[in-house]
Amino acid sequence: MLSSCGDEEAKQGTETAESPQCPCTDATSADIITVTIGATVPTGFEPTAAEEVKEKIGVDARISKDRGRIYFPISTDKLFQVHHLKSVDNLFVVVEEYDHYQFKESKEEALSEFQQLASKLPWTNALEVWKLNGALKKKKGHRKGGSGAKVKSNRETSDAATASTEQQELPEAVSLAEGQITSDGSPDVESGTQEEATPEATPKAKLIKFRVTCNRAGDKHSFSSNEAARDFGGAVQDFFQWKADMTKFDIEVLLNIHNEEVVIGIALTEESLHRRNISHFGPTTLRSTLCYGMLRLCNPQPADVIVDPMCGTGAIPLEGAIEFNSAFYIAGDNNDMAVKRTVNNVCHIQKRRAEKGSVSALPIDTVQWDLCSLPIRTSSVDIIITDMPFGKRIGSRKKNWDLYPSCLREMARVCRPGSGKAVLLTQDKKCFAKAVSRMGGLWRKLFTVWVNVGGLHAGVYLLQRTGAVFGQTPEDVYESRGTVNTQVDEKQEKERS
Known about the structure:
Distance between the termini: 45 Å
Shape: elongated
Largest sheet: 9 strands, mixed
Structural class: alpha/beta
Helix content: 25-40%
Number of strands: 18
Strand content: 15-25%
């Protein structure tokens, strides 16, 4: 399927092939064009991201067959709005889309087609959007962190492809620049990268540097991602006469391949937007974009009291305090290091807001507590939202069998009967399902969103507090098979962090 402006772009593509457009050419501000924007989102929260696009931009978003991506049309006069979306990780403008790309069977023929494709694509509008996007953002110079930082971004972008091809192939991440291939052994998706460039159309034009990044998923391709990036990138370089640079590039061309779906785009974000709020990270810090999706599930209302009893670095309540600031948030944890990180992250955001001249105070408080004995009055909390220990980096699977029922019981005590809700994330699905069944008189499961968290298949569970009065159901007298140890080994956590 072509983008919404495919016909117009197709006409321009012929002209582009004869005379490549320089991205540095001055744009005519009066020219408003419509393009398709692609966005990577947390896998499983594609419908939530589409809802946000409809709510904030007023257009319908299309969910890609390649999980973790959505597409939507936008006119260039509203381009700034895409950077205000909170559920997207990375943004790119679509050059061209192919729903059913027929790859040649032999590697040589398939790669030869990629080489020929570069000169046939309608680059004009996408490059125009890239220029406008650069003017919108307050750039702080070239991206920092070199190839290491960029590889992390590629790994994050590839989460979606990994989730939909979990048992199809073992992907790899490869970066290609100026003929050199480097592999970082990423567990998520194959990535190949190459080059950027500078047009020679104008004598005093800035030297434009570029690279091509290929994200591939599927087991029926005769080529690897680095081979596709190498050959397609070389053709792009020849077409535009750009210069390859792996780390300090101006333009990143994206070649996304998912089975028969091929999307060519130009990146609009330098680093993933999910890191926007956190300055002090812990061993299991959630993405801000995933936190936003979880918060939208529970639909916070004005004056709601929202509690995260296992806050870690405070990512969830901090996102809520910023985006849904009519509610009040309590962030708590049993580990003092986690509480300190949360306090530091809150202070960081408040300082940043004060520097911009906006109201710095946030409706959030932080406390250290025992999550199985919360210092909160019965039936006083509207929403509980938290990332529960998976039993991998934090805690253990064995302890979860006692911890989960005790947590759910205490959450039921403090939650308002009938109206209270809980949004809980965990990868320990078997243990959680058993704990919820034991608490059947207190909690009712509404639905589950299956997500990819760092390569792990996890569930976000939305629970509704039943109308049962706490203290009058069989679940209230649940007793652990042993002593519940809710304390995390601080020495162990220090080593991991």
